[in-house]
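HUMAN: Spend a minute on the protein record below and explain its fold to me.
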Amino acid sequence: MSICIFPGTFNPIHNAHLKMAEFALKHYGFEKIIFVPAYIPPHKEISSNLAKHRYKMVEIATSKNPNFEVSDIEYNSNAPSYSLITVKRLIEKYNLQDRLNFIIGTDAFINLESWYKIDELKNLVHFIVFPRRGDEPDYKYFVDNGYDFEVAPMGYIDISSTEIRSQNEHIETTKGVEVYIKENGLYTN
């Protein structure tokens, strides 16, 4: 099975996340995109109380696409979400012989060197890097240091979870997620 994982904080999931996943499905011919919401992201300060809400919002946002799946592998760990551990568990679960495809934005890609046991992780995954305006990675550095990656030929989509959390009226996410945010009083100032 040709799969690709899309790990992230998804605080909250928004339309750009969904467009990236849809692009990856079509452009690369994956059979499935597996969203992996982090329980406790190691590189971000975020309340673990939001974990169940973030997970539920990803379920809501992806529910209409039969090629999208949500994994609870990190959510059920109740520990910091290290990509290496998640990737190893998913490789075993799906009995993969090749590298695991891994969607990542340039904002995270430029910080890969600070990730937990990155030298081991980079040997297990093929990164599909989605550009974000303002983030200009030194791709030569990553090539020279043994990273397996390609840059997705998709134009910029300038939506960020930070902006969504700060907005009170117009939210760039699915209607179901928007309703969930309002019903649960999330991201109110």
